[in-house]
Amino acid sequence: MVAVSADSISMEYRNNTMVTLLFKSNHPFTIYLAKLITLVVYGITLLLAGFICSLILMLLLGNNYSWSDNFHGYSLITALGYNFLGAFIYLLFTISLSLLLVILLKSNSIVIIIGLAVDFLGANFSGLLMNILPKQLWAWNPLNMINIIVQLSNQSVIKITHLSNFELFLGNGCYTLLFIILGLWAFKNYQK
Asked: What is the Cα–Cα distance from 81 to 39, expressed in whole angstroms?
């Protein structure tokens, strides 16, 4: 989603599609919101496809797994649902951050590199920093928010994040809203 988010905006600037949209509309907010909604719908479609593929695989593996098998205190199907809920929440975070970065940096390749670094190394880097800095303060950093994907179905991750599920929901929501507001501000001012 980082690559799709970054490339969709930068490609429209490269092909002058964005200039045409901005010329025909007096409200950059509606353009930015339309891009955001399109990316969220695309992300939800990918998540649903992944969920359906997971269910099909579970059915095909039939005798090896049961829907009621225990996975960190939850049934397998419940844990799968929690993981996809966490992935959806983090999807919103990722899309809003990617849009903000591509508008500010004007380079989809740099945004993709930053996005991949955050996705693959963010949680580990956050854990290292929490060992050095005060946990109560550093626990709210944006890199720690990726852990919502795992923590909802595995409560032992709380020892790593130092945040409850509700606090991770709240943190992801606040950062997503902040990135959307900053992205809108940057989008409006980028055109001047």
From this structure: 22
**C-alpha–C-alpha distance, residues 3 and 25, integer Å:** 26
CB neighbours of 109 closer than 8 A, spacing ≥ 6? none
**pTM for the full predicted model:** 0.83
Rg of the chain, C-alpha, whole Å: 19
Q: What are phi and psi of 65, to 5 degrees?
A: -135, 150
Closest by CA to 179, choosing from 111, 93, 116, 105, is 93
Q: What is the pLDDT averaged over residues 62-68? A: 66
Distance CA 103, CA 9 (A): 8
The terminus-to-terminus CA distance of the chain in angstroms comes to 28
pLDDT at 91: 92
Distance CA 157, CA 174 (A): 21
Decide if 84 contacts 47 (C-beta within 8 A): yes
C-alpha 4/C-alpha 180 separation (Å) is: 17
Q: How many CB atoms lie within 10 A of CB 100?
A: 22
